[in-house]
Each structure stands twice: as C-alpha cells, then as structure tokens.
Amino acid sequence: MKIFTSAQIHELDKYTIEHEPISSLNLMERAAKAITRSIEEEWSNRTPVVVFAGPGNNGGDALAVSRLLAEDGYQVSVYLFNVHNKLSADCAANKKRLLEGKRTKLFTEVTVNFDPPQLTEYTLVIDGLFGSGLNKPLAGGFAAMVKYINQSPAKVVSIDIPSGMMCEDNTYNIHANIIKADLTLTLQQKKLSMLLADMQQYLGRLKVLDIRLSPEFINQSDCKYRLLEENDIRRLLMARNDFAHKGNMGNALMIAGSYGMTGAAILATKACLRAGVGKVTTHTPKRNYDIMQISVPEAVLQLDHEETCFSEPTETENFSAVGIGPGLGTNEGTAIALIAQIRRTSCPLVLDADALNILSSHRAWMQQLPKDIILTPHPKELDRLAGNSSTNSYERLAKASELAERLQGYVILKGHYSALCLPNGHIEFNSTGNSGMATAGSGDVLTGIITALLARGYKHADACRLGMYLHGLAGDLAIKDIGKESLIASDLINYLPKAFLRLED
Asked: Which of 329, 414, 488, 503 would staple 258 via disulfide (CB 3.0–4.6 Å)?
C-alpha cells in the first residue's frame, strides 16, 4: 500500500473526480456513506450524536454524515464552525442538503461566540473540524474546542484524521491541540503520521475505508512511503528446489555472544537456522562452547581465542552472509576486532545490537562501512548512531533515511511499524508485529532471520522486507496462543515455521 503525502492525496481526489468521472460532491457522498456505515456498525440510533464540522471539505464530510445518520433515526446535533464566513463549495452544498432534510435535532452555525454543548459518557462526538490538508497547529477557538472535547467523557470518532494532526510532520505541532479519538476512520489509505509511534495516542482504533479512489492514479504515482502487505511479501518467496542440499542453501556466519550474553548468540543462531539457511557457523568466545553445543546442536562452532569476548576477525570467503552484533559486548578489544572484521568481509553483512553501539562510540569508522550494509537499530541505537537524540518519531525516521542514503545501505528502524530505509531515499513500513515483541532478544532473532535470507540468495532489500515481515508475523501468530504478556524471543523462533507456512499457502 502506497502512503501518499497530503499534496498527493489532494491530487488523487482531483484525478478521480476528473477521470471517473464523478463530481466532488458525489465523491464526498460516497465517503460519507462509508463513514456512516462504520459508525452504525458500532453505535445504535439510541446514541446521541454531536457533530463538530469545520469550514472545509472535512467539515463537508461531517455534514453529509450528519444528514445520513439523521435519516437513519439518530438524534444528531450539528455545530458548523464558520468564523471567517467562508465555507468550501462542497461544505456549503452539504449544509444546504442538511437543512433541506430537516431531520437533524439541532443545527448551529458558529460565527462569533460559541456555547459548547454538554458532552456525557453516552454522547458520540464526530470530529470533522480539520482533515488531511491542515498545515499549521490549531490555535484560538479551535484549540479550545479540541481541549473541551478531549476533556469530556464522550466517545470520539474522527473523520479521516484527528483534527489538529498533520499528515506527515508533527515536529512543531502543539500536541495539546490534537483531538484524541477513540476511532479514526481514514479514507482510502493510512497517512504517514499514523505509522509513527508518538502519534498513536491520538488515533484510537484505526480503520481504513475504501472509497474507490482512482486505482490508475495510485498505481502510476511514484511514492516515497509504502506499507508492506502480505501480497507484496508472498511474491518475494524463493522456491526450494526438490534436489537442494545444504551446500547450495547458503552458508551463514554469526559473530555473536560474550560471557554472560550467550543467549543472544543462541537466539540469533537458532533464528538463522529456522529461516531456512543450509548451514550456520557461530563465532563465539571459548566459554560459550558447552551451552552453544547443547542449545544449538545444528550449528557449527568457531571459537575465538579469548575466553569471554570477540577479539579477533575471522575469514569470511567461504560464507554467503555474515551477521554481527548480538550479545557481542563493547570493550575496546572487541571494537578493534569488529572494524577489522568489517574491513575483511566481502559478502553481505548485517550489523545489530553491540556492533551498532561500538560504531556509535567510534563514529569515524562509519566511513569504512561497505556499500549495501544492513543496520537494524532500535530507536535509541539510531539516536546514538546519529549522534544526538531525536525529539519525535518523524525526525528519527528522517535521520534513519539520511543514514541509509549516506551509507548507500539499508537501515531497519525497529518499532511497531518497523521502517526499512532504502539507499534511494524511499521508506517501506512493515505491517506485522505487536507490542508483545517488545522483549529482550527479539532483535537478535531478526538479525538471524535476515542473515539467513541473505545467505539463501535474496537481494538485500528483499531479505530486509521478508525478514521484517516474517519476524512480525511469527509474533502475531504466537500471541494468538500465548498472549502478548508472556511472549519471549524464543517464541518468535518457534513460530517461524507457521509464518513461512502462512506465506506459502
């Protein structure tokens, strides 16, 4: 699914109107019917409804919804804010339709003073003040209106996007002036801000309504942002040849673990094996020998000459891909071994965890990273790599994308919607995963999966896409049986087979 900017959304509406063809008013009616159906599925006509409509097309949507609800027997009170005495053409047309219908309980057009209605826990508020075209923070009376709604016990449904929220960048927004919806009914597709962590508190439940905007425009338009869905991923899967043997199914090297952090090496190695690679060798300190042999008998062990840490680079010419970082530690000897290892590695390379922490403390080494390298930081690791903390998710995403372009590599910024930042500046969000996966070792599993896919022969971008999706899907399948609270990283490995089977069906 492409994620359009607010400007592109405007062009999509315009293209649909011109080429379907359909009038803008009838397109608004189509959207209003979809919104009304969704509301009526959750609230009966015994629910008192209060609608707050702005002067633009989002307000026009709200007025059309008001009329349709009233026609279906709902007690609807409507407040249209027209403080500048200027309504959009479609908003004015829907005002006329609403008044001609004569079924609304109350209609008030606010031009100067406003006495807000009482909102109880039984009230349903429909927020149609401002939509996706908003480009500056709300202020004055509208800000006060938002705060009044947020302080009330009423349930709130926002049309398209909560009023006060911008489609992309909310860095300089005033968060107190954004509607906190219980349900957001967004039209056609999610907006970028809806995928960012610090905006989730305003969305409530999010439902995407298909209003049949032009598929031709959607397919033809270049887009910086995309949300990966199951159909995108299914076509990436490589078939396993019936005559395959371990020698042609990839040979992966994991450099992982230190004394006290053997678990990270175990998780990454097991995940690598479960992701279908033919053979895995794990380079780890001597003290990890017994536990590794017992925990992952399928892996080949390559022991470092040090007892407790990674201290020496190893040859990689016989390997198809290398993953470095889980449980590695960050002492100076390990840091020197890491940069030496990076310099001598010519096959695809994945860096995670302590490998990233080492680089953040030796930032000059970043210049020595090979083209097409894959980095998998969580937000705090990304902040350290970038050299300063980000104040919000949009800024952090921009820094991750900038890093990918500068390195000509791939950066997976982990989160609920993990973001794959590509060397060309495009960003692809993962649609699988859940909060149960916020647990120690989850990132080690992802590193193992991606390393395995690279060793299998997947292109870098496809290994990242498929790896993110499988990792999240395993988590989604796991919580159906064990719930979010009890999920641990090894559960993700155990459910990887089911994730593969789901995609192969």
From this structure: 329
